[in-house]
Amino acid sequence: MSLTEFTHLVRSDLYRLHGRATLSAFLRVLLLGGSDGAYQYVFWMRACRYASAHPVLRVAVYPVARLVLRRYGYKYGIDIPYTTTIGSGFYIGHFGGIVVNSRAVIGKNCNISQQVTLGQANRGPRQGYPTIGDNTYIGPGAKIVGSVRIGDNVAIGANCVVTKDVPDNGVVVGVPGRVVSFDGSAHYVEFTDY
């Protein structure tokens, strides 16, 4: 990952949070946290990934970034490994109880809410890890388990359990999750034009 790519990711994540990506907004959120504390976790997750890929930073910056990331993981109840593939504009609406497998893939402009799990299935026809498309909203308490492909512009309802593929623009609810409409994630995923 280049410095330009790292900067783009950090700015796009901030833009998703506030609709702007200014230095003052970045410093306020990073230093003060508050209700935007999940951004602190996302920033340090991105910093760990960037620092781990560069020999000089791996020695000097990476250990500190890992320590800070671990602290925020405990503080906010988020377990998303820095090695997870996550596109630009990642947004955590409410922190707490979020668990993502390191091999899951998350597209750009994805919203994740509290108590969400993107987990591994160890056996059966869906053995593997989820792949989440772009502009996807994952509601509170939703669980996506196994080798499941979630399409672009999908909305997954609260406490939904998804174990099968979801087509683009699907709205999924229930246990097990079923598509109830094709209205997509419009009005759930905002500030995507960074």
Automatic annotation (TrEMBL):
Question: Which family does the record assign?
Answer: Belongs to the transferase hexapeptide repeat family.
Q: Does the keyword Transferase apply?
A: yes
Designated name of the protein: Serine O-acetyltransferase
Record key words, sorted: Acyltransferase, Transferase
* Molecular function in Gene Ontology: acyltransferase activity
Q: What species was this sequence derived from?
A: Geodermatophilus siccatus
Keyword Acyltransferase on this protein? Answer: yes
Q: Name one Pfam family in it.
A: Hexapep
